Amino acid sequence: MDNRRYLTIKERLKQLNGVFPMDDAVIEALPEGSKFVSIEHSHTSAYTITGRIMALNQNGEEQAYFLKVAYEEHGMTMLRGEYESSKMIHGFMNDVLPKPCAFGTYPFEDKVPSPPTCFYLCEFVDMDVTTAPDPAEFTKRLAHLHKVSKSPTGQFGFTVPTCDGQVAHTVDWQDSWAEFYRRLLLHICELDVKTNGAWPEMERATKQIADVVIPRLLGILQKDGRLLKPCIIHGDLWEGNMGINLKTGASILFDVGSYFAHNEMELGHWRCEFTTVFRDKIYIEHYLKNFPAAEPAEEFDDRNRLYSLKGAINYAAGHPGSMLRKTAYNNMCYLCEKYAPIDGIDKYDPTMDPVITGATITPHLADGYI
């Protein structure tokens, strides 16, 4: 087991003393004919160091690029996943996120005691990240992305591991969506136990969800002649990972960690406490006008509750002590009571359900490890 303690981004920034960790590898990755001019720090990030590059294109015109730098193998997994996700999405719909340019690594020299370092480079887009998107416009564009996407294998999964925050997804290709989601959820639940400790009742509920509820709620989507299209999803979609393009006025996504999934999986995050804007039912209502609920449609809300487990437990795994762990457990109890009653777990408590209470949290930049 690797017990090394990796530096946080705050600690790295302190070590750098204001100097951006730039390398010639980034300059070489700029589009052909570009001339590097400058680099400056950009917005704050929990898991990466970000910057804005100014360059001159081959016509001598200024062009801005956005740069992310990350460290160690997990940082490489995160940025490689974002690059491959962005490339895939851009190929389906070229105006829904900043155009990806490159993923690469800094050369490692034995004489320099620096950790393995990688970068992700894309176009820089001026955007408003404080204004809520128009529900009709945003959901129409999101549904269009889901509709036009096409899995390269016809299966659920992705070409490389991707991440939600610092947590890697399990994305091995699967024909069965129920099996894919089962593996994805169980992996995150294992990480949660490592972070937050054992909780026998939740672990019992988790097993019942995996063994009985998922096959019942999701297995039915591909039974009796029903077809379920694998759609590319953002993978961590809440209002903190999207903005409004100031040049075009259109909604735009960023920080993607994609995989091919049931399209409704995208909406699971909108049920979690870290989401406030998309918690408004108008967003799901408009989305379903563009991409109707799968059959059986009457089970949409239960599927949404099931899909929210991934977002809530993923957040808890990255933020020790988070209340979202209790929310996820309470939702598990609801689903078990309805579809697979079992002894040894608690009763569902509506006073702990954020959909009923309206409870929210303020997502924070973790001091966790990148």
Strand segment count: 12
Overall shape: it is globular
Distance between the termini: 17 Å
Please state roughly what percent of the residues sit in beta strands, choosing from under 5%, 5-15%, 15-25%, 25-35%, 35-45% or over 45%: 15-25%
Question: Could you describe the largest sheet, including whether it forms a barrel?
Answer: 5 strands, antiparallel
Helix content: 25-40%
What is Rg?
21 Å
Mean pLDDT metric: 93
Provide the succession of SSEs.
HHEEEHEEEHEEHHEEEEHHHH
* Low-confidence segments: 365-370
| Protein structure class | alpha+beta
Task: Count up the helices.
Answer: 10
Major β-sheet strand ordering: 1-2-3-5-4
What this model shows, in words?
InterPro entries: Fructo-/Ketosamine-3-kinase (IPR016477), Kinase-like_dom_sf (IPR011009). Its EC number is 2.7.1.172. Keywords: Kinase, Transferase. It holds the Pfam family Fructosamin_kin. A five-stranded antiparallel beta sheet has the order 1-2-3-5-4. A three-stranded antiparallel beta sheet has the order 6-10-11. A two-stranded antiparallel sheet has the order 7-8. The two termini are 17 Å apart. It is an alpha+beta fold. It has ten helices and twelve strands.
